[in-house]
Each structure stands twice: as structure tokens, then as C-alpha cells.
Inverse folding.
């Protein structure tokens, strides 16, 4: 049973009462909220996601609710809680859905050390995956959204999960977070892409989320092996340029982009060297998405 | 006893229960353990009983994840202890570890599956300045910069304000006693230092003697105002008692030392709640002896109502309508025990009206 099998009022009342158990990649998140923007956006962006079979177990229990104070009428707010604990300060109420997304990322990155977790997008084509690590503002999500709309299977936009057994990439297919100008860029690039209503003035500026392709969601059980690591950099007006990068430098940059590298100790080191050994590493500068797509289509498998 | 009925305590009492739990029970156990900060403890328990193979994959992932954090943390603490030893050597002082770091370095059972947020060390009061100077020279800086906070710690407390290392962000609490100067009970720290024993194979690193370790753990727990980790601390105590009870005359020594150190009351509570909640086996002699020192029965039943609730994990599944009140009452009690009323009033007044708000 998928989220789309529920009509709006069923979904709303489920979220209000016993909660929705959503299957995203290897995780089951139990969500409770009576906020209408939360249920609308879940209906829109998670339509193809499965409801977890209800055996009573969930990995994460989260709630989104207005704080119980007088702010109800004056600049209303929303609080995210992780099984009744409150890890973040409240945000304005209209940021409830982005807060759910950030909160779910936090649940995974802070409590799932059975994986090496990278702050990177990851997509797959013909059994080979490309990892796009990038600090905010490098255009990683824009490129990721574009590739996902041109036949690449989306594994994740934010969190690359690497399995300890064999180094396979575990999909965690969820909405792609787009910020500021990239919202309009993706609308123009792919008019059929489903985007949530943009939310202004968040810590990351204006934010909207793109619904992941149904085929990507359907293949959430299918892991992929890494073949390329590409560090993207968006530069207005720049020539499209793909340059091979020495593995030593890629290694150091990857550490910067890992959530729990040092926490895994020696195991983290071995997993990271393993990953770098398997992949060809590139720096990629781009300003035109169509040209970027063409470059990615021509990536050659690494000679191992 | 409210806490004894919670799922996590049932599991601590009978780890075998975990072989046949439903997924719904696993869901609850993971949640309660996370709130009690005992996920890795549960992992260690399963490992010890060779039960890891019989646990469903999903809950196991959470236990393993917590275990990964604990392992990394233990490595960091060992390195910290190494650096502290070198720093104190320059002041010609041995490193006497308390609580968590002591369990870890002396390889005692409570260290299994347990995270300790900072390293606690004990130095003679006369050497406090030298110890502090040595730590500052080696990169640890005072954390509380507010002049009142500094004075409060130095005049009335049993430790200096926490010191943080400027590169590793690790925190050290430098103690000269195990209870504040102003507290109701007055253990003599010189006796603790005198009886301290070498930990492992480094003579310069010491830990308290077994009976003192138990007394310190008891004193700490039953003077503690914030009991979010109460169950975890009680579990530490339980595993210490089970482990040390194999030492001949341990119970007699514990009894004698509690009287000598003026710590009978906290020891009574510790043994009482260990046995009531975690079914810790106690010797007949200590039960007899403690009976003579236990508070009047109305007080014991009030304390049972309060501690029975406050020693549960902070989770809705472990709370009832009285839990909030119980936590609040024990918070007030802890201040009451640690400071005379007049001083407490003055301190709270200052905190409310004069202190800079934390940023």
C-alpha cells in the first residue's frame, strides 16, 4: 500500500491520530502531525512511497506540532520532536514540511552508524553509481534533480549510505531539496517535475522540494556499486569542464563531506579508501544543465 | 515500584526475554533505551549473553549504531587520560580517576556500553592550584567565565568549574571532594586518596578502592537533582555491586566504610533501589546493618513513590501523572542536601536576577 492509496482526508486523519509509518529506503519513520501543510506535502511528494507493514516497529518516531503557548495566534510556530525530545528550536509554522525533511535527515545522520554516511547526492545508471558530494551552494541538488529527470535513478539527494558489508550504496530515495534560484531553474528545465510550494525565509533561503521519480522510489530495495565521484561546482556562464582529480585529494575532500567518518575509526578509513579505490574522481564545473547531462551520459566506467 | 514495571527494567532483570520479544516490544525497548541512554548497554548485555544472533535486524541496527559510538568514545577517553596523566606528572601529582573514566581504565563492568561525557579527577585540596595550573599549561581552559560562577564553584563546591581542552573540546572536572563543602554529609577526601589503588598496569593512574567507588557512585546518584540518567547510573551501581561482591569481606568493608565516611544514608538508598528495581543480590549482613539506619517508614514510602518514578527513563511510556512532580521534588531535595537553606536562597536569587543569561 502506498501513500497515494489514501485520499487527503484519510491521510490527514491518520497523521493526526495513530500516525503514518512511512518506508524510506531502509528506514521506517513514524510521523504524527496535525499541521495541514505537512499532510499536503506528504500527499504530493511521497505519493509513490510505501506505507511500512505495520508490525509495530519504527526506526524513528517524529512529531511536528505547534508549541503549546500563546504563539498560536501571533506568528505561529512549529516544533519538531524526536520521540518527545526536542532537538531544534521552533521555526515559523509555514516551514513545517522543510523541518520534517531536515529532521528526518538528522534522524538518519545522527543515529545510523551501521553505515558510513556522506553528505552527498547519489544516482545510478546501468548499475553504476555517481556520487556528488558538495558543500551547500555548489549546485549539487540542482544537478541531482536534473539527472533524476533524465533517466538516472535517484538513490538520494542528501545522504549517501555506504554499507559496511561490501561497500554497496543503499538507496534512501526522498524528495530533492531545491534552494533559491535552482527552484526556477528546475521548473524551466523540466516543466513536468512536481515541486512543492516554495517556502521563503528559511535558514537556507527559499526552499522547495521536488518529488522523486516513481521508478526510483520503486527500486529502493536495489543497492548500487559506486563508479564515479564528481565534485560539482555551478558557476554562472562557465564552460562545462570535467577534470580528473588525484585520488589523494578526493579522499581528503570526501572526509570533509562525511557525517560519521571519524566515529567509525579504522573502519571508516578502510571504507573510505575502498570507495575511492573503486571510483574515478572528477572536478566538474558547469553552468548549462543540458551540457552537464551530456557529460554524465559519456562517463566511462573506471578501469579496475 | 514504578520503574520496576517498565520494559527496559524487565529486560535488564531477564535479558533472555529479548529472544522472544515481538516487534512492538522491540520498538518500545529501543525507545526507552534511547531515552535512558542505554542502547549500547543493551547491546553489551546481548553480546555478553551470546544473544546477538537471535535479535531481529532492525532493532539490532540501532543497538549496533550506539555501540559504534561508545567504542569510539572509549578510545577518545583513553587518549584523554593519557594526556591528563602527562599534564599532572609535571605537577608531581598522580592521576586519580573518578566515575566513568575510572571504570573504563580499570576495566570494570559498568564501562561496557557506556558513554561518559567528561573525565572526573580527584586531587588533594592543598594541591588544587598546582593541578589547575598544570592543566591550563597543557591546553585546558576554564569554561565558566562569569565571576560569580567562578566564586560559587571555588567557595562552595567540591570541584572547579569544568575545564575544556582548547583543541580537543574534551571536558575535565577537577574535584577535591565527592560532595560540596556545604553539603549535609562530610566524607573525608584524604581517606579516599589514601586508599586509592593503581588501575591496570600504570602505577601513576589510580582509581578509588572498590568500597569507595560504590560509595561515590551512591553519593553521586542520591545527591543528583537531574535524574534523566538515573536508571543508567543505578545500573552502573548494580554492576559494581555484583562484580565486587566476589571480593571476600566486601560487604562488611562497605558497611564499615559508609559509617566512617558519614555516607550511610546515600548507601542505604542505593542498595534499596538497586535491590527493589534491578534485583541486585545483597548480603544478609548489609541488609541487617542498613535496617538500623533507614529513615522512618513514612519517609521511605514517600521516597519510593518519588524515586520509583524518577529512576525510570524520561519517556511517556514510563510516566504517570506523578512523574513530573517526582522529578521536581527530587530536584529541590538535591539542592536542599547540597546547600544550607539560607545560602541556597541567596544563590538562587543571584542566579535569577544578577547572572548573565546564557547565550
Amino acid at each position: 500500500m502506498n501513500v497515494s492509496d489514501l485520499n487527503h482526508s484519510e491521510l490527514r486523519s491518520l497523521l493526526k491520530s495513530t500516525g503514518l509509518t512511512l518506508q524510506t529506503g531502509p528506514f521506517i519513520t513514524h510521523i504524527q502531525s496535525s499541521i495541514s501543510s505537512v499532510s499536503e506535502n506528504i500527499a504530493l511528494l511521497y505519493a509513490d512511497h510505501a506505507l511500512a507493514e505495520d508490525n509495530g516497529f519504527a526506526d524513528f518516531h517524529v512529531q511536528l506540532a505547534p508549541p503549546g503557548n500563546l504563539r498560536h495566534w501571533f506568528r505561529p510556530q512549529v516544533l519538531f520532536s524526536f520521540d518527545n525530545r526536542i532537538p531544534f528550536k521552533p521555526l515559523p509554522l509555514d516551514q513545517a514540511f522543510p523541518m520534517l525533511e531536515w529532521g528526518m535527515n538528522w534522524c538518519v545522520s545522527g543515529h545510523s552508524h551501521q553505515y558510513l554516511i556522506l553528505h552527498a547526492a547519489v544516482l545510478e545508471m546501468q548499475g553504476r553509481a555517481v556520487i556528488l558530494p558538495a558543500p551547500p551552494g555548489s549546485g549539487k541538488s540542482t544537478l541531482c534533480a536534473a539527472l533524476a529527470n533524465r533517466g538516472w535513478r535517484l538513490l538520494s539527494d542528501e545522504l549517501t549510505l555506504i554499507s559496511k558489508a561490501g561497500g554497496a550504496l543503499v538507496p534512501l530515495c526522498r524528495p530533492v531539496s531545491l534552494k533559491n534560484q535552482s527552484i526556477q531553474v528546475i521548473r524551466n528545465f523540466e516543466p513536468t517535475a512536481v515541486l512543492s510550494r516554495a517556502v521563503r525565509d528559511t535558514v537556507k533561503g527559499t526552499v522547495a522540494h521536488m518529488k522523486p521519480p516513481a521508478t526510483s522510489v520503486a527500486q529502493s530495495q536495489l543497492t548500487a556499486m559506486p563508479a564515479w565521484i564528481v565534485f560539482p561546482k555551478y558557476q554562472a556562464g562557465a564552460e562545462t569542464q570535467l577534470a580528473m582529480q588525484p585520488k589523494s585529494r578526493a579522499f581528503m575532500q570526501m572526509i570533509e563531506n562525511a557525517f560519521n567518518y571519524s566515529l567509525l575509526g579504522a573502519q571508516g578509513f578502510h571504507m573510505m579508501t575502498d570507495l575511492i579505490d573503486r571510483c574515478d574522481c572528477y572536478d566538474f564545473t558547469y553552468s548549462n544543465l543540458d551540457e552537464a547531462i551530456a557529460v554524465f551520459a559519456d562517463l566511462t566506467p573506471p578501469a579496475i | 515500584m514504578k520503574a520496576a514495571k517498565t520494559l527496559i527494567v524487565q529486560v535488564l532483570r531477564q535479558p533472555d526475554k529479548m529472544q522472544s520479544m515481538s516487534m512492538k516490544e522491540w520498538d518500545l525497548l529501543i525507545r526507552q533505551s534511547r531515552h535512558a541512554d542505554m542502547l549500547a548497554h543493551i547491546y553489551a548485555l546481548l553480546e555478553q549473553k551470546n544473544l546477538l544472533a537471535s535479535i531481529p535486524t532492525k532493532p539490532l541496527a540501532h543497538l549496533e549504531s550506539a555501540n559504534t559510538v561508545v567504542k569510539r568514545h572509549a578510545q577518545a577517553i583513553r587518549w584523554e587520560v593519557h594526556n591528563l596523566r602527562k599534564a599532572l606528572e609535571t605537577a608531581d601529582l598522580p592521576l586519580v580517576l573518578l566515575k566513568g573514566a575510572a571504570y573504563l581504565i580499570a576495566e570494570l563492568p559498568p564501562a561496557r556500553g557506556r558513554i561518559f561525557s567528561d573525565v572526573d579527577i580527584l586531587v588533594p585540596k592543598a594541591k588544587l592550584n598546582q593541578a589547575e595550573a598544570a592543566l591550563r599549561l597543557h591546553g585546558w581552559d576554564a569554561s565558566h567565565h562569569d565571576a560569580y560562577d567562578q566564586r560559587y564553584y571555588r567557595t562552595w563546591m567540591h570541584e572547579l568549574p569544568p575545564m575544556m581542552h582548547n583543541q580537543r573540546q574534551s571536558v575535565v572536572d577537577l574535584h577535591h571532594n565527592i560532595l560540596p563543602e556545604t553539603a549535609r554529609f562530610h566524607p573525608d577526601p584524604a581517606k579516599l586518596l589514601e586508599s586509592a589503588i593503581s588501575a591496570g598496569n600504570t602505577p601513576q593512574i589510580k582509581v578509588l578502592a572498590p568500597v569507595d567507588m560504590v560509595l561515590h557512585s551512591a553519593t553521586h546518584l542520591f545527591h543528583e537533582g537531574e535524574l534523566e540518567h538515573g536508571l543508567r547510573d543505578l545500573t552502573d551501581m548494580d554492576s559494581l555491586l555484583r562484580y565486587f561482591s566476589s571480593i571476600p569481606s566486601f560487604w562488611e568493608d562497605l558497611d564499615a566504610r559508609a559509617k566512617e565516611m558519614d555516607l550511610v544514608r546515600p548507601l542505604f538508598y542505593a542498595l534499596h533501589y538497586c535491590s527493589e528495581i534491578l534485583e541486585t543480590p545483597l548480603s544478609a549482613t548489609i541488609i541487617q546493618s542498613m535496617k538500623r539506619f533507614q529513615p522512618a517508614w513514612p519517609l521511605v514510602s514517600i521516597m519510593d513513590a518519588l524515586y520509583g518514578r524518577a529512576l525510570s527513563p524520561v519517556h511517556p511510556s514510563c510516566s504517570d501523572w506523578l512523574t513530573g512532580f517526582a522529578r521536581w521534588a527530587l530536584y529541590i531535595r538535591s539542592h536542599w542536601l547540597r546547600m544550607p537553606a539560607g545560602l541556597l536562597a541567596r544563590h538562587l536569587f543571584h542566579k535569577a536576577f544578577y547572572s548573565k543569561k546564557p547565550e
